[in-house]
Amino acid sequence: MSGFEFDFKQKQEPKKTGFDFDFSKKTKEVIILLDVSATMKDSLKKIKEAIINIPLNVDIKIIPFSDYEYDEKEIAFNDKYDFIKANNRNKLQKILDECIEISTNEKPGGDEPQSILDALYDSLDLFSKRIKEIYLFSNASVKYFDSDTISNDLTHSQKFDILIEKIKNSDIIINLFTPYDKELEKLNKLKKVKLFNVSDGNSIFENIDNFNNLDFETIFKNIKGK
Q1: Strand locations in 18-150, DSSP E?
Q2: Largest separation between any pair of C-alpha atoms in the chain
Q3: Of 80, 159, 183, 197, which residue has the fewest beta carbons closer than 10 angstroms?
Q4: Rounded distance, CA 116 to CA 33, Å?
Q5: CATH number, domain 24-221
């Protein structure tokens, strides 16, 4: 571990009234948002091992994302993969291999900051069933909203307010595994959002190292469903 311990039993107690963070509750659909920038390659390999080797009886949709401003649309946010049962390991492995390949082919230098808010916003309408969770993984800090996200007539602040209201009006549990970021800390104040800071966000290299040392197996063991 990187020195940042994730005690799910403690972290997921319903500290904010009106919503239950208990991971033992049935989870029907889980979206996993994966930053596929170049520095994420080693972490993606670990994520692949953690997901493949743990029997998860839930529907999972994997969405690779990257920089909305500089990357091609099919790389910036790729929602082509359907929800699949997590025990469909051959299909899941194929998808994760493709994510790793994208990361391997990405040019270094566009990893920091990252379009985390854009990807989160675009994923909120992709669920169909009642019980929903999002897991977002990135070793980068937050980039301002892309001009084309929501509307190019709005400022970043206005778009952020829209994102907050959309989360408030949803029934989606959101788990963010990222370095500390003041924008994400604002989201963490919402009762449906939990931010797991993987580092203090002061050093790009420290962010990468700490993220890569996460115990992904423990993280995914806490995704349960029937």
Answers
A1: 29-35, 59-65, 84-85, 132-137
A2: 45
A3: 80
A4: 9
A5: 3.40.50.410
Percent of residues in the chain assigned helix, strand, coil, to nearest 5: 35, 15, 45
Q: What is the pLDDT of residue 110?
A: 54
Residue 143 has pLDDT above 70, yes or no: yes
DSSP output for 149-218 = SS-TTS-HHHHHHHHHHHHHTS-EEEEEEES--HHHHHHHTSTTEEEEESS-SS-HHHHHHHHHTS-HHH
Domain residue spans of the chain = 24-221
Q: Report the DSSP beta bridge partners of residue 59.
A: 29, 85
Query: Are 122 and 148 in contact, with CB atoms under 8 Å apart?
Result: no
Q: Which two tokens stand for residue 32?
A: 């996993």
Q: Which two tokens stand for residue 72?
A: 């091609």
3-state SS assignment for residue 142: strand
Give the three-class secondary structure for 119: helix
In this prediction, residue 199 carries a pLDDT of: 80
Beta strands in the chain (DSSP E): 29-35, 59-65, 84-85, 132-137, 172-178, 193-197
Query: Beta 84-85 vs 59-65: how paired, if at all?
Result: antiparallel
pTM: 0.85
**What is the rounded CA–CA span in Å between residue 31 and residue 127?**
8
Q: How far apart are CA 53 and CA 136, in angstroms?
A: 20
According to DSSP, the residues that pair with 137 across neighbouring strands are 34, 177
CB atoms within 10 A of CB 149: 21
CA distance 187 to 14: 16
